[in-house]
Amino acid sequence: MPRVNYRSSDVDLMARMMRAEAEGEGKQGMLYVGNVIVNRVIADCLDFKEVRTIPKVIFQVQGGNYSFEAVQKGNVFYQRARTSEKRLAKQNLEYWREHPGKYALWYFNPYAPCPPTWYGQPHSGQFKNHCYYEPKAGTCDSVYRG
């Protein structure tokens, strides 16, 4: 049973986002980004109460901007998804979760050492240039169940 329900168009959209956000960090880095996307679909808390699908997560607007920089800037996100990224996206949608993105709802590249918190949420780890953050204990139990 998949972690979240999805259609082939969701696989394509998620694959494009994973590539655009983390292509330089290889397959592993793209899988971590995919973890965050799926976790946001599962999360029923904080900024993610109204996002229950892959498109809603990817095109979510917060503070007047898209949540993901790749949607704002265009770059690779608007290119066709490749078979290899689609395969990775399906892995995330079906089963794949691993630390530091296992329960993460946020990531970013600080171009410096990872801060211990990001908007009050604890740092869960780093992979190459991206820092990952999961919700504080007790604030988003749905992420830990999903």
UniProtKB/TrEMBL annotation:
Keywords: Hydrolase. GO terms for molecular function: hydrolase activity. The keyword Nucleotide-binding does not apply. This is Cell wall hydrolase CwlJ. It comes from the Bacteria. It holds the Pfam family Hydrolase_2. Residues 24-133 form the Cell wall hydrolase SleB domain.
